[in-house]
Design a protein that fits this description.
The structure holds three protein chains of three kinds. By secondary structure, chain A is of the alpha/beta class. Chain A has two domains: 6-151 and 319-383, Periplasmic binding protein-like II (D-Maltodextrin-Binding Protein, domain 2), CATH 3.40.190.10; 156-314 and 402-439, Periplasmic binding protein-like II (D-Maltodextrin-Binding Protein, domain 2, 3-Layer(aba) Sandwich). Chain A has helices spanning 6-17, 52-68, 81-93, 105-113, 134-137, 162-167, 180-194, 208-217, 233-249, 255-261, 270-273, 286-292, 331-343, 345-351, 361-367, 373-385, 403-415, 421-439; strands at 42-49, 72-79, 100-103, 141-142, 145-146, 149-154, 156-161, 199-202, 276-282, 298-301, 317-324. In chain A, β4 and β5 (145-146) form a beta hairpin. Chain A is globular. Chain B has a single domain (78-309), classed as MetI-like (MetI-like fold), CATH 1.10.3720. In chain B, strands 1-2 form a two-stranded antiparallel ribbon. In chain B, a hairpin with a 7-residue loop joins β1 and β2. In chain B, 51% of the residues are buried. Chain C is an all-alpha fold. Chain C folds into two domains: 2-59; 64-281, MetI-like fold, CATH 1.10.3720.10. Helices cover 70% and strands 0% of the residues of chain C. Classes of the chains: A alpha/beta, B mainly alpha, C mainly alpha. Chains in contact: A-B, A-C, B-C. Chains B and C meet through α1, α2, α3, α6 and α7 of B and α1, α4, α5, α6 and α7 of C. Chain B: One of its GO terms (cellular component) is plasma membrane. Chain B: One of its GO terms (biological process) is transmembrane transport. Chain B: Keywords: Cell membrane, Membrane, Transmembrane, Transmembrane helix, Transport.
């Protein structure tokens, strides 16, 4: 068992004797600049979320690391997504954050701005990130400082179930230059051809990734550089209105059916069970969809456009990150582990595309020959899209980690007709704006 | 709060106690010190500290990662204008008021049926308890969505009668009702407690009643139910406390969100979202103490009412 | 001939109706379990499309796959859960019955206050207590041990069971212990030799419920135990699933079924003790 002594525990002991136990994490803890690796035996903990396959792969990578550095013992910790964040919040509050943690962009600012994460510039004598795509690397910065190293990044895309299209005899339009009109017309055709068995598309409406891409298609953005909500309300209204139109026209399933799969693991989504033929997904999840539904054949396409669509509306969204705790007693070893995970191509061979399409080009080359057909298709799509992507937008600011939950909630309110998109937009702005203000 | 009712019970027995004399009372005090020692150590050593901490946090702004900041009554002021709090209270009250009596009635009825020395009793009891064994796992969450989905079993059954059912757990109008049904369905725990209680009633009493010519119905109302009343009372009190804190069922069915559109936003779920989802643990703690006050008031009411219908042997 | 015995016939009909009714209810109760078993035998892609019990294609691989899918064989998690459960059951039986005896039979100072305090402790939701608890256990060096899960049970923190036993003891006629007291028995003897045997149904209920609830409890086991070799069954079951990647649901269902077997067995064999009331021990 690893214990963080230091001021945390002392403060804790004092507080506990008073009957009040409070958090006192590493805010203001002074990180050592350029710490040295220890020659002694060191134990660090590493924390991630994921299912069993990722667990096995990560443990394999850890073993490789321990072989390379025999004096470092890496203690694995893992949990499912919600359990992971509940536990991370608890342990961090108690000053007991694991040394290295996998991170997601919605929580990155929340933890970094409140001092829980190690400023990786302090360990750049050990951690080398120079090989990573600078555009992607920037998504690990909060207020200009690097707190997290992205594992990979992906664009959004449209997943198309070609099996369903063949089955119902509907032709897929040329997706290299399709318009929103083509998209809707094709969907309606498929819904009608299937006679209620399936619908053409699962609309967007409840996730920040698709909202961001939608906003960028129309020249807007969701958050600005200052961590403020900078979305034009009209864009949110049109985003939700689009979904309502799809439901009305029969391109999409009914509100009830849509609500049923909302926020569920992808194995249970309509795209996998075959109740919808097209949907908006992070392109990096293509392989997961394909292997969850072996009976279907999928393909990826870029979003449809309109005549006035802005160029470069797609962007690379980081899939996840590695970061270190500001309270870590072994910053050098933590940095070494992150360096290993980000630069050693043997890690790439173990992970494949599980943590996104690699941000490190060397990983890309190492992975490519090992991929199956779906994997290659996924990489090819991202490569093709790399021509199209624009600047990377700022990540979700501190206090806005609720955005997914909020979008989800208002999306349901709208599709069940309890509020109009206009009313919901107003409420959404109030609620998210308050949360951001409260956090800053 | 609930001291009221308890004190009343006490004072009833105190008259007897007075005759027992001082010596016995001091002996009782000593014995109590022994029997309650583990509980007192637990209370002071483990339970009270975190409770006081949460009470303090209720008056702070605490984002989990930075030190809490004392903000006085801000959290309470916030409650007054919090629409989602109002929604969660409404959901929780509806749920408690409908599901607790319903579940108890089903549990009691089945316990009475099973207690009558029925053939295959242990098999029936095991099977009836099954849903409570399953708990609230991921597996069960998946099942409910399939059974109560738009294309699910329930609707397939209704379709036989030409009725087109909604998506039971995903339609805001029916989601809470479905959760009530699911709650009633896990009546195993109170049923087992009822059965254990029924077993404590001496058979001689029934034999005597039967000799006196009391009908079965008469035996039920003037013998079984009064003697079972402490257990009914227990199930009622703990059922209320448990349902007010209901979390897991709504959590697994709505993926932790209380949806569709907040129709299953239980109080505990809201509190959890505020604390862990939005990093507002100060406000979550204030909510928790509001819940404690509500539950405490209901429990006190129960204890007060119990003197009219609960019959103790001692 | 039946006309000659109308009452017997009516009674027989009533009995048949009762059994038919019970069997229907039982089927409703059994359905989820059967469905879980069915799902554990289906290919993954069939699980989310079938709410029925019919299995198109059998897939027995989920059991061996699930057993070895995580970092440790599933037996590790079963064993860990057993340890936690065993400690919890023993702790609850001893500490709660002691406290209950005091509350039900002893007239001590501040009894009313103590009783209220006991009930109040179960009125706060765990989510606001977990962080202070974690800080506290971390100071004791108890994180990554089962102590935070077991020790509180030995200190009667489960007020549910105290209250349950109080209600049971109060149902036991006072003459029994008064008779013993006249014979010169102290409280310890009355508790051990008179109350405990008479409380067997309540003790059995406590044991069974503690077993099941601890076996299924996810949150505290997740938070206080972070080392994978110490993970318990509920934590292990969740680590099969990830929303953003494809997950092996079949394996998860298979292991869910496996993890139900011990609880079901405990209930099946434990419930005979529920029957031992005054009625069978011949209290008088």
């Amino acid at each position: 068992m690893k214990r963080h002594t230091s001021r945390t525990v002392r403060a804790g002991v004092a507080a506990a004797t008073a009957g009040v136990t409070l958090a006192a994490c590493g805010v203001g803890a002074d990180p050592v600049l350029h710490p040295e690796l220890s020659d002694e035996d060191v134990t660090i903990s590493m924390n991630w979320w994921g299912a069993d396959a990722r667990t096995q792969q990560t443990i394999e990578a850890i073993e490789l690391f321990e072989e390379e550095y025999p004096n470092i013992d890496v203690e694995p910790q893992y949990a499912d997504w919600t359990g992971y964040w509940d536990r991370l919040a608890t342990t961090t509050a108690a000053g007991d954050m694991p040394d290295v943690s996998q991170f997601d962009q919605i929580y990155l600012s929340s933890y970094a701005e409140r001092g829980a994460l190690l400023d990786l510039a302090t360990v750049n004598n050990i951690l080398d990130v120079s090989d990573l795509d600078p555009n992607v690397l920037d998504t690990g910065r909060v207020d200009g400082d690097l707190y997290a190293v992205p594992t990979g990044a992906t664009t959004n895309g449209i997943l198309i179930n070609t099996t369903l299209f063949e089955e119902y005899g509907v032709e897929i339009p040329d997706t290299t230059s399709w318009t929103w009109e083509d998209f809707e017309r094709t969907s309606i055709e498929l819904s009608e051809a299937s006679d209620g068995e399936a619908h053409g598309l699962s609309p967007f409406g409840g996730d920040s990734f698709s909202l961001t891409v939608w906003a960028r298609q129309h020249g807007g953005q969701v958050f600005d550089e200052n961590g403020e909500l900078a979305l034009d309300p009209e864009l949110l209204i049109s985003y939700w209105q689009r979904t309502l139109d799809y439901i009305d026209s029969g391109a999409a399933p009914s509100a009830s059916e849509l609500s049923e799969t909302l926020g569920l693991p992808l194995d249970q989504s309509g795209l996998v069970t075959g109740s919808t033929a097209m949907g908006f997904i992070p392109a990096g999840q293509f392989i997961a969809y394909q292997s969850a539904a072996p009976d279907f054949d999928y393909t990826l396409a870029n979003w449809p456009v309109d005549a006035d669509t802005e160029e470069g509306f797609q962007y690379l969204k980081p899939s996840m990150y590695w970061s270190a705790a500001s309270t870590t007693e072994h910053p050098a070893e933590a940095a070494l582990l992150i360096d290993f995970l980000s630069n050693d191509t043997r890690v790439a061979e173990i992970f494949g595309l599980d943590r996104g399409e690699p941000a490190n080009p060397a990983f890309w080359d190492a992975v490519e020959p090992l991929l199956d057909e779906a994997g290659r298709e996924s990489l090819a799509f991202t490569e093709a899209m790399s021509e199209e992507v624009g600047d990377t937008p700022p990540i979700t600011p501190s206090g806005a980690s609720d955005i997914e939950v909020l979008l989800n909630r208002y999306y349901q309110v709208i599709i069940f007709g309890q509020s109009s998109p206009e009313e919901a937009t107003e409420d959404f702005f109030n609620e998210l704006g308050d949360a951001i203000n409260a956090a800053s | 709060m609930s001291a009221l009712g308890e004190f009343r019970n006490l004072s009833r027995s105190r008259s007897r106690l007075d005759t027992a004399g001082k010596q016995e009372r001091s002996r009782d005090n000593k014995a109590a010190a022994f029997f309650l020692a583990p509980w007192v150590i637990g209370l002071l050593g483990i339970t009270v500290g975190p409770m006081i901490a949460s009470l303090y946090l209720a008056f702070t702004d605490y984002n989990l990662l930075q030190d809490p900041e004392f903000t006085g009554l801000d959290n309470i002021r916030r409650m007054l204008t919090d629409d989602r709090l109002a929604q969660s209270l409404q959901v929780t009250f509806t749920y408690v008021i409908v599901s607790v009596p319903l579940q108890l009635a089903v549990a009691l009825a089945l316990a009475l049926v099973l207690d009558r020395g029925i053939r295959g009793l242990s098999l029936y009891r095991s099977v009836l308890y099954l849903p409570s064994l399953l708990g609230a796992s991921v597996a069960i969450a998946v099942l409910w969505r399939l059974v109560f989905g738009t294309e699910g079993l329930v609707n397939a059954f209704l379709a036989l009668f030409g009725v087109e059912g909604p998506g039971w757990v995903t339609d805001p109008d029916t989601a809470l009702g479905t959760l009530v049904i699911l709650h009633v369905w896990t009546f195993g725990a109170p049923m087992v407690i009822f059965l254990a209680g029924l077993r404590q009633i001496p058979r001689e009493l029934y034999e005597a009643a039967a000799t006196d010519g009391a009908s079965k119905k008469r035996q039920l109302f003037s013998l079984t139910l009064p003697l079972l009343s402490p257990i009914i009372f227990f199930n009622l009190v703990l059922g209320l406390i448990g349902s007010f804190q209901s979390f897991t069922q709504a959590y697994i069915i709505s993926n932790g969100r209380g949806g569709p559109s907040d129709s299953t936003l239980f109080f505990s779920l809201y509190l959890y979202q505020e604390g862990f989802g939005s990093f507002r643990m100060g406000y979550a703690s204030a909510l928790a103490w509001l819940l404690l006050i509500i539950i405490g008031a209901f429990t006190a009411l129960n204890f007060w009412a119990s003197k009219y219908w609960v019959f103790y042997n001692d | 001939m039946t006309d000659a015995y109308p009452t017997t016939r009516r009674r027989r009909v009533a009995r048949v109706i009762k059994h038919v009714g019970l069997i229907i209810v039982c089927l409703l109760m059994l359905y989820p379990l059967l469905w879980m078993v069915a799902s554990s035998l289906r290919p993954n892609s069939d699980i989310f499309t079938s709410s029925g019990l019919f299995i198109d294609t059998f897939d027995f691989d989920h059991y061996p796959n699930g057993w070895d899918a995580l970092a440790y064989p599933f037996s590790t998690y079963l064993l860990n859960s057993f340890l936690v459960v065993l400690g919890s059951v023993i702790g609850n039986l001893i500490s709660c019955s002691m406290a209950a005896y005091a509350f039900a039979r002893l007239r001590f100072r501040m009894r009313g206050f103590a009783f209220v305090a006991m009930l109040v402790t179960i009125m706060l939701p765990i989510h606001v207590l977990i962080i202070p608890q974690y800080v506290f256990y971390a100071q004791l060096g108890w994180i990554n041990t089962y102590l935070p899960l077991i020790v509180p049970k030995f200190l009667a923190t489960d007020a549910f069971f105290i209250f349950l036993m109080v209600q049971f003891i109060r149902g036991i006629p006072r003459e029994l212990d008064e008779a013993a007291r006249i014979d010169g028995a102290g409280h310890l003897r009355i508790y051990g030799q008179i109350m405990l045997p008479l409380m067997v149904p309540a003790l059995a209920t406590t044991a069974i419920f503690t077993f099941i609830w601890t076996w299924n409890d996810f949150f505290t086991q997740l938070i206080f135990v972070t080392k994978p070799d110490l993970y318990t069954v509920p934590v292990a079951l969740r680590s099969f699933i990830d929303a953003q990647t494809q997950s092996d649901y079949g394996a998860m269902f298979a292991m869910s079924v496996v993890s139900l077997i011990p609880v079901f067995l405990v209930f099946l064999f434990g419930q005979r003790f529920l029957l031992r009331g005054i009625a069978t021990t011949g209290g008088k």
